[in-house]
Amino acid sequence: MSSTRVLVLNSGSSSVKYQLIDMRGGERLAAGLVERIGEQTSRLKHTHVADGDTREQHGPIADHEAALKAVAAELGRDGLGLDSPELAAIGHRVVHGGMFFTEPTLIDDSVLTEIERLVPVAPLHNPANLTGIRTAQALRPDLPQVAVFDTAFHTTMPESAARYAIDPKIADRYRIRRYGFHGTSHAYVSRETARLLGKDPSEVNVIVLHLGNGASASAVEGGRCVDTSMGLTPLEGLVMGTRSGDLDPAVIFHLERVGGMSTDEIDTFLNKRSGLFGLCGDNDMREIRRRVEEGDERARLAFDIYIHRLKKYIGAYYAVLGRVDAVAFTAGVGENAAPVRQAAVAGLEGLGLAVDGELNAVRGDEARLISPADARVAVAVVPTDEEMEIATQTYALVNDSGGSVASGNLT
To answer: If you write DSSP's letter for every residue of 371-400 in order, what string do you get?
Structure first.
């Protein structure tokens, strides 16, 4: 197949992130972000990677259709337009694929219908993903469009990890189970960690800690996810920027009965006004660390709660895996916050975990080990690359599907 470029689209409720990648050598050709869609203060930031040229547009962008048309125009200015015969496919990030989608999937009407059916369990994400897909289809109806699901990597979890302890009939009727999220990141980072160790992913057990504003942990055994911290929704698990993470379900009943809060108010409270933000008024780890260093007790408590939960998951997943070859930190906080990495493994020397202070303090864009040379368990910093993972899966699917798909025949 002569077409080797993949456009990756990550459509949020008011934003579109994108990258154009040439899969012949994994070369990024262009990247950008459209944000504040639907507002008067919309912004498009576009980078032509080859020459490092970055351009910005400011002003109202009414909707996702207008946003993608603006993206297409910027790509066209660099000779990389959506009409290029070198464009093989468009890969879309879709947050929730339920149990139906366990791998990258060519998008047709039945796929769109199923993604829409999952909106109740991903009300903030799947509608935006659908909007991006439909807009891209309208712009290039002849081009293969592929959905890559955040949940897919976690579908290998055994039922003992994926099921909640509730009546299976009720659970199945309402699709209640642990799905997990950030799957493209966990897949990419677990493989890159194995590569860093000079081993095949099938030989390596890794605990992946994806720590950003949203945060999740996974236990990856021989390249397959066997447990992950997020559940039916991205609310479960670690303490996050604005999400509470693990919580006694009875807190919800208490807030309703005693606090007089509505279901929607509780939803907003736990998803948008809790976590680090709820504890200390900040959800930026850099600001929290600055406040800690100045002696701010609220910030210190928030940091300690964050680390306590993180350490509990490391220990739990160590037990699940039985043998751990590496712990890998990734995403914005995981890649950049040395104090978080240091604190997360402090006291776990008995499990073979430690970080070297000098190595941990080094900043860089490359995957690297930060544990002492003689450590029993490697501790690594592995920058995530969800866009490359989506592009790789998209390109492989389109190639494997043969010429009919490559020409745009999805049926």
So the answer is: S-TT-SSEEEE----HHHHHHHHHHHHHHH
